[in-house]
């Protein structure tokens, strides 16, 4: 009898130990990561944010089952450098050529996707990865992941024919069983050009389109915005198909889904600027039952923070030279409002977007977005911020830092008309060295308060905070240097003469 009970007790202990081991293994299971990034979408443009005539049910689903971040900011409103900042966890002034459109990412800056791959993750991407940029020696050849873009589809006019969702399915089928995965869904939408009138033909009521206050409110601009909405919805439809694929594969519960965009809408005074419609991004994140759904978080999140957050979530040591800070604790707090009081600011920047000034000169900006305030320092106010009116960019033509399209064309053609001049000047004219805006009271940044004496002390305080951070992170601008003047511009078909450094061209 004693032997029987000893055996039973031993068996029970073994079962408990085995059960505990399985429970511990399950708790230590590395999460999958699905990183979904639209091309050119400003923060307010989701139906979760209440934008009329825009339907993004799948973004809304991620937000409802997870967290929506009200203050997420790209480090730069330009696609390739924004993606470089995401992948490396660094500010663009820390990335040399990697901080420029049509630049290249030096090999010394390791990307978080590479670290995931080196630590047991299957990785892949579909759509737009790290581009446009040189991905040949001496730069990083594959800074993101293996490409999955072979499967095509019949897509609406002017949209990519890459079947992003089906390529994701192909990735899931081909990855090593049992391995966690990282997959980057980089939509080409809502980048220009658009199929003119596609929004109206899709049933959007043009009269209900809300025009940002920095653009004239007329039927042409409304139709242009409706076409932009139509492309956001295409991105969202593929997101929905990917979520369904995760459900069918039994992977949804253990997958971190991030939905955001690289920079703001491709309209004047948005993309290619440091105003809120250029740098303030939509961001929703869910992670199974680890996150209580429906929270709205006010903490400021920089795109430099993605890399350390995802590495920490995966249980991988964060390299010491990463500048961003993990917001995993904020993500998992299951609270709304301001979680971490220290997250009350972010820093944004711009150097060269397109080659739209003589010699490829950049338009250098540094900003601090703190609380309700945006403080902006334009280092070269004598330059044309949107590109020279008489210098044609090989990429976008005159005023080349604004994407070519009906809205830009309307401002240029009608810039001297009384009803248009105010809006044209906002986007096309030169700017003062210092700009200050109360973003809460002035969401379109129309009223520069920097010259108002009553804000002099605030300007000093914000400039002090900004410069302290720039010095801490070794911004060459703090030493009066501009290495960006001499970095080549790797635009396909661009004259070889223009690829030489400035000193060799003179």
From TrEMBL:
<protein>
    <submittedName>
        <fullName>Sulfatase</fullName>
    </submittedName>
</protein>
<keyword id="KW-0732">Signal</keyword>
<comment type="similarity">
    <text>Belongs to the sulfatase family.</text>
</comment>
<feature type="domain" description="Sulfatase N-terminal">
    <location>
        <begin position="31"/>
        <end position="316"/>
    </location>
</feature>
<keyword id="KW-0378">Hydrolase</keyword>
<dbReference type="InterPro" id="IPR000917">
    <property type="entry name" value="Sulfatase_N"/>
</dbReference>
<dbReference type="Pfam" id="PF00884">
    <property type="entry name" value="Sulfatase"/>
</dbReference>
<dbReference type="InterPro" id="IPR017850">
    <property type="entry name" value="Alkaline_phosphatase_core_sf"/>
</dbReference>
<dbReference type="InterPro" id="IPR052701">
    <property type="entry name" value="GAG_Ulvan_Degrading_Sulfatases"/>
</dbReference>
<dbReference type="InterPro" id="IPR024607">
    <property type="entry name" value="Sulfatase_CS"/>
</dbReference>
<feature type="signal peptide">
    <location>
        <begin position="1"/>
        <end position="25"/>
    </location>
</feature>
């Amino acid at each position: 009898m004693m032997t029987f009970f000893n055996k039973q007790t031993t068996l029970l202990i073994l079962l408990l130990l085995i059960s505990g081991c399985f429970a511990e293994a399950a708790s230590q299971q590395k999460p999958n990561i699905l990183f979904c990034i639209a091309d050119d979408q400003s923060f307010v443009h989701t139906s979760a944010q209440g934008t009329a005539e825009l339907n993004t049910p799948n973004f809304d689903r991620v937000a409802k089952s997870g967290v929506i971040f009200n203050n997420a900011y790209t480090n730069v409103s330009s696609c390739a450098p924004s993606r470089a900042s995401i992948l490396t966890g660094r500010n663009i002034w820390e990335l040399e050529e990697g901080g420029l459109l049509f630049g290249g990412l030096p090999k010394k800056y390791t990307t978080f996707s590479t670290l995931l791959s080196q630590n047991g993750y299957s990785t892949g991407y579909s759509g737009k990865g790290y581009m446009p940029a040189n991905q040949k020696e001496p730069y990083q050849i594959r800074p993101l992941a293996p490409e999955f873009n072979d499967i095509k589809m019949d897509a609406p006019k002017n949209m990519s024919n890459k079947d992003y969702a089906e390529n994701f399915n192909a990735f899931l089928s081909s990855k090593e069983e049992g391995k966690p995965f990282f997959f980057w869904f980089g939509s080409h939408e809502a980048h220009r050009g658009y199929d003119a009138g596609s929004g109206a033909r899709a049933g959007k009521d043009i009269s209900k389109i809300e025009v940002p206050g920095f653009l004239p409110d007329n039927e042409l601009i409304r139709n242009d915005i409706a076409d932009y909405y139509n492309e956001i919805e295409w991105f969202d439809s593929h997101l929905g198909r990917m979520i369904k694929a995760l459900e069918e594969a039994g992977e949804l519960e253990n997958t971190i889904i991030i939905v955001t965009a690289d920079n703001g809408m491709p309209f004047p005074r948005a993309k290619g600027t440091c105003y809120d419609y250029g740098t303030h991004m939509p961001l929703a994140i869910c992670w199974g039952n680890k996150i209580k759904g429906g929270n709205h978080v006010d903490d400021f999140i920089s795109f430099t923070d993605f890399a350390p957050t995802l590495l920490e979530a995966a249980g991988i040591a964060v390299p010491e030279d990463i500048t961003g800070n993990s917001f995993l604790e904020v993500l998992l707090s299951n609270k709304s409002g301001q979680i971490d009081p220290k997250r009350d600011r972010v820093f944004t920047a711009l150097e060269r977007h397109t080659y739209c000034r003589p010699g490829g000169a950049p338009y250098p900006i540094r900003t601090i977005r703190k609380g309700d305030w945006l403080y902006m320092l334009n280092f070269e106010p004598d330059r044309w911020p949107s590109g020279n009116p008489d210098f044609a960019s090989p990429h976008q033509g005159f005023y080349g830092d604004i994407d070519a399209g009906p809205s830009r064309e309307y401002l240029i053609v009608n810039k001297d008309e009384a009803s248009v001049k105010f809006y044209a000047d906002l986007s096309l004219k030169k700017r003062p060295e210092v700009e200050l805006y109360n973003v809460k009271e002035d969401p379109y940044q129309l009223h520069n308060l920097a010259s108002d004496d009553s804000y002099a002390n605030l300007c000093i305080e914000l400039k002090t905070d900004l410069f302290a951070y720039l010095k801490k992170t070794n911004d060459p601008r703090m030493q009066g240097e501009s290495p960006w003047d001499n970095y080549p511009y790797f635009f396909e078909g661009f004259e070889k003469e223009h690829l030489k450094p400035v000193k060799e061209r003179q």
